[in-house]
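Illustration 12: DinB family protein.
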Amino acid sequence: MKILDQPKEGDYSTFFSTYLNLVSGNKYEEQILKQADSLLGLFHKKGLEWASTAYEEGKWTPKEVLGHVIDTERIMTFRALCFARGEKSALPGFDQDPYVLNARFGEMQLHYLLDDLMAQRIALLSMIRTLPEDTLDLVGTASGNPITPRALFWIIPGHFAHHMKILEERY
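Figure caption equivalent — predicted structure in token form:
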């Protein structure tokens, strides 16, 4: 895989700094695959009851967190594709809570969600491999803020790391 350097400050809104500060280096593919493996290991170790139990009232279950991560990765990947292809229209934001509620991740079999994460990660890497290098820094607008495909791609493992830490510490 080609090297995917991290985005520069200014390629994304400061909102995403929280996620981008959780990832480092430029071994993107390695990080993406290691993260997926560690999540699979966590869910297999903890079991089905754990996957369906929130750590407190009103919080998502681990299965719902997993579904949210998958949804977010799909949205970030779609945005990156649009901007890499030169999309000039602004893309909307999304409210994560109705997405999780309407998806009903808690009703899904865990192995479907885990397979879905792996499929999303493989599709993500495949797409990155086929993008021309100069399209990674084209600027588009999402949620009212300028952002590049490169930044969107790096937000994915940062967002994942954020939620993985929560799964490990609170659940």
